[in-house]
Design goal:
Elements lengths: L2 H17 L8 H27 L22 H45 E5 L5 E2 L19 E5 L19 H6 L3 H14 L6 E13 L2 E10 L6 H9 L4 E10 L7 H19 L2 H9 L3 H20 L7 H16 L10 H36 L2 H6 L24 H10 L10 H14 L9 H10 L5 H8 L3 H15 L4 H10 L2
Antiparallel strand pairs: 1-2, 1-3, 4-5, 4-6
Helix pairs in contact: 1-3, 2-3, 3-7, 5-7, 5-11, 7-11, 8-11, 9-10, 11-15, 15-16, 15-17
Length: about 525
């Protein structure tokens, strides 16, 4: 396929996605239509990505190395101009390739997030054979038909699912993440960067590959070879070399290459999630800010007068900006004049002290709320996902957080350390979010990982009831409240709690003996 045709087709497809309206309904037919439409889009996007990578779109500027001014001969001015024109042409083409591949990858990440949240949101049951399709099993429904051939389904919302459908409308499904980032407010951009930094929290360096120089006996001669091996844990490298190159192979040199995977290990997924949570948080707090300001400020009316004066000064400055070189200085002068007329500033331009204090309180409140709420919501959703799923599920299925690390080390757990009580209380009491303040969020997740290792191979179900039990044991949350958070029956949570307590401290001799056998 011609490259311009490939780019044109991809841009047309992404433009078509942008026009589509994402509506989530509680009807089985509408839900299936949306789910499989996104699934079909994802398949087409994968095809675009593979074709582009095959054609070298990942590194489009490499071909420019052969263009440019030769260093070994003199050239006429006309020839230099021609070379420069051709170089600019190829550079524009390379930029177009890089940009379209970037947009396609962004769109893929957004579609995977949307599908993961929809899978968590509801399950489908065949009306004929009563077969149930949950989570990732939804993709097993081929062409809208059950395995029995029926096309009639019933939809059931998953009360324990880890989803936040409100973020889906803000995802860059058409790959337009740069446009959506530019639409953020200054505080929104700061919140976006903060959220991306949280998701970039890196694991300490682990060995990814090894480079070795070995000596091998071939035709009674010692020959040196360079070998690269993918690191596996555990792996006896010397044994591997001898199995591959014979018993006489000797290692002369070994170099370890390390990687530092992040909490969510893909940049487009980080960007899409950050945009979704920040825009959702902005919408949440929009009606909340006025009430909070009224409770906090000494004189909210004076602050409103100040804001109106500032807007007027800014508009007046735009009209006469040509006469002034410094726009900010002009705005400040005009603002000072307006405030003097309103009695909120003296003749020297010094504002009323109580107004200055209220402005500072407003700025601090907006910063705290808009910066912290999206981060708290993301960390809480990640906590619930880790507590209610098994290691195998997190490894094999992307879920609502694609590229999420199935387990975290102590360095990655630092992302969960700062969990502000005031913001949690605000979300719970004013916005009806089902959150609970946990002073040591990271220790709760770490405890869950420890229990997963101890119960490995014992067919202990890692489900939302297990999450409620962990929240009760390590988070010191009442069992009834923990069950309410994970939307599970209290009796199921108590049963899982009993299982965990048995593995922590077996009470009977039989249980102690069994645990000793399990642990080897």
């Amino acid at each position: 396929m011609n490259e311009s045709v490939l780019i044109g087709r991809a841009e047309k497809f992404l433009a078509q996605i942008k026009k589509e309206d994402l509506k989530i309904q509680d009807e089985a037919a509408a839900f299936m239509e949306l789910y499989f439409h996104l699934k079909d889009n994802l398949e087409i996007l994968y095809e675009f990505r593979d074709n582009m990578e095959l054609k070298g779109y990942k590194a489009p500027y490499r071909s420019l190395n052969k263009y440019g001014r030769p260093q070994y001969a003199e050239m006429k001015v006309e020839d230099l101009h021609e070379v420069s024109r051709h170089t600019q042409f190829f550079r524009m083409g390379a930029a177009a390739k890089k940009n379209i591949l970037d947009r396609v990858k962004s769109s893929i990440a957004s579609h995977k997030i949307a599908l993961g949240h929809l899978e968590e949101y509801a399950s489908l049951t065949c009306s004929s054979c009563r077969s149930s399709y949950r989570s990732h099993e939804l993709s097993n429904i081929k062409n809208g038909k059950c395995e029995c051939g029926s096309t009639d389904f019933e939809i059931t919302r998953n009360p324990s699912g880890i989803y936040r459908l409100e973020i889906l409308e803000y995802l860059p499904l058409s790959g337009d993440y740069m446009v959506k980032m530019s639409e953020l407010s200054p505080l929104g951009r700061e919140a976006f960067r903060s959220l991306v930094r949280t998701m970039k929290q890196e694991k300490r360096g682990i060995v990814k590959t090894l480079s070795l120089v070995i000596k091998v006996l071939e035709d009674e001669r010692w020959v040196r070879k360079r070998v690269n091996i993918d690191a596996q844990d555990p792996l006896n490298y010397e044994k591997k070399i001898r199995e591959t190159y014979g018993a006489n192979a000797r290692i002369e040199f070994m170099q370890f290459h390390r990687k530092k995977p992040a909490l969510i290990n893909e940049k487009h997924t980080q960007t899409a999630l950050a945009l979704g949570y920040v825009r959702h948080a902005e919408k949440l707090v929009e009606p909340l800010i006025p009430r909070l300001l009224e409770e906090t400020l000494k004189n909210a009316q004076n602050l409103q007068v100040y804001e109106e004066a500032w807007e007027n000064a800014k508009n007046l400055a735009k009209k006469s900006a040509e006469e002034w070189e410094d726009d900010k200085s002009l705005v400040d002068d005009l603002l000072s004049q307006i405030l003097q007329k309103k009695g909120l500033s003296d003749l020297r331009g010094v504002m009323d002290p109580s107004l200055i204090a209220d402005i500072q309180k407003r700025d601090n409140l907006q910063k705290e709320v808009l910066l912290e709420i999206p981060r708290v919501l993301l960390l809480w959703d990640l906590l619930r996902y880790y507590l209610s799923t098994s290691y195998d599920r997190r490894s094999k299925h992307s879920g609502p957080f694609p590229y999420l690390r199935p387990s975290l080390d102590t360095n990655q757990l630092k992302a969960f350390q700062d969990f502000p009580r005031r913001v949690v209380t605000l979300l719970r009491d004013s916005l009806n979010e089902s959150l609970e303040y946990l002073p040591h969020l990271e220790s709760v997740i770490s405890f869950k990982f420890t229990m997963e290792k101890k119960t490995q191979g014992l067919h202990i179900k890692m489900d939302p009831a297990m999450g409620a039990a962990v929240l009760n044991i390590k988070g010191q949350v009442e069992i009834e409240r923990a069950s309410e958070i994970f939307k599970v029956p209290v009796k199921d949570a108590k049963k899982q709690k009993s299982n965990l307590e048995t593995f922590q401290k077996p009470t009977t001799r039989k249980a102690q003996k069994f645990l000793k056998m399990v642990q080897g």
